[in-house]
Amino acid sequence: MSEVFSKVNKSRRNLVIAVAAVPGAITGAAVVAPFVATLAPSERAKAAGAPVTVDVANIKPGEKLTVEWRGKVVWVMRRTPEQVAAMAAIPASQLTDAESKKSDQPGYVNAKTRSISPELMVMEGVCTHLGCSPTSKLTPGELGNDWPGGFYCPCHGSKFDVAGRVFTGSPAPKNLVVPPHMFAGTSLTIGVGQDGKEA
Length: 199
Ligand code: FES
What we know:
alpha+beta, Rieske Iron-sulfur Protein, eight-stranded antiparallel β-sheet, 11 strands
């Protein structure tokens, strides 16, 4: 599937970033970096901490948008019904922190889907082991017959489901981080809580 482009409002400027079609992930930092590099240092510092607003209306089921927030890669993905079902079917015994009790996410996201709604995922694309960027391995069977689809960290082999929950046997100790975020219709703002205040 080809890449399509979407506009993201970030503070007082616009960034053009890519929607990566599943399963071909893109490296968000590599896409965003050239635009960031054009900012003056003070503007860059200001923008680095600012909330990021994205319109999710055009993200189709199975597509993943990569944005940058506070210098980190954040994925916004619309899960397919099949991915939601596959995620729900994973036995808790296969997951290091199935209920996300030791992991980092806002209290208003579901502990299992790790999202506000089952289909829309907002997650930092940063491995909780040593910070590498996991790659999308969203096709069931892609990493073996029992692979339900998810993310794979190429550095030391950590595996995560489509909720960012880490599988047992992975060196990553926690699930992928869910950043604070808020939806208003199809508008998603990353970096604010449910009250709209910066978090
Ligand atoms: S940094 Fe991801 S497994 Fe080590």
